[in-house]
Amino acid sequence: MAVIGNRGPIAQYWATAADPGSIVMPHNFGERMKMPLSRFLVIQSNMSFMEGQPNEEDPWAPIRPLIEGFNATRAEHILPGTFLTVDECMSAWKGSNRKHRHDGMPHVTKIQRKPEGVGAEFKSIACSQTGILLKLDIVEGTARQSSKQFHQQYGSGTSSVLRLSQEYFGSGRTVVADSAFASVKTLLALKKSGLFFMGMVKTAHREFPKSVLQQWADGNLDGAVPKRGSHLLLETEEDNESFYAIGWKDKKLKTILAEGHQILVSLS
């Protein structure tokens, strides 16, 4: 999603070539957003908004029904596959910040590495096989995030994963996530909820043998530096359940946390 400041016919945003003599690059939304103009017009024709008074109790009230409706519709009509991917999405914002203007965005996130790195951030979960988004969770700012479900017990990363995946608790699906969410704490919390987990561990490595995997990658375990593409698998068991720590030798060591033998089968 994106908000563009200049005005003009909607069709101009789907143009694939610049106008003759123009130095302005075409927006090419069809390719960039993966949505044809015809579909956008159908969606637009079924949406309406009205100006309302600012809601001090919920600054996100103008769009919350839209997000909740999206989540409810996906839960009702989409049956995802075995693997679920947790990540974040950005909705680009070119307007003002509520820190500076009363009518600005309630909370603006800035992520430099993103193609559109300034805007509203959503934590998201998708079906890994089809790529269909299943649920969005607005990142509302530190104070409001800390009052959300599961946050007090588990903290930011794990609570986000639990909120996004709770419609699938007990289904035996596997949640896959990057280092923003991956930790032993996340794995154990999902295990209690009837889900498996796999993710790349970086900074949240409490109770994870990252130092052992690093020693292996540096050649300090058996005296030989492993070749690129080599891996080391560490296994532990608790209550007849297997948990794995995987080191993958690359230009930079990759350290992966996983639970359940079916994950290893899928990787092979």
UniProtKB/TrEMBL annotation:
InterPro entries, A to Z: PGBD
PiggyBac transposable element-derived protein domain location: 28-225
Name listed for the protein in its UniProt record: PiggyBac transposable element-derived protein domain-containing protein
Provenance organism: Achlya hypogyna
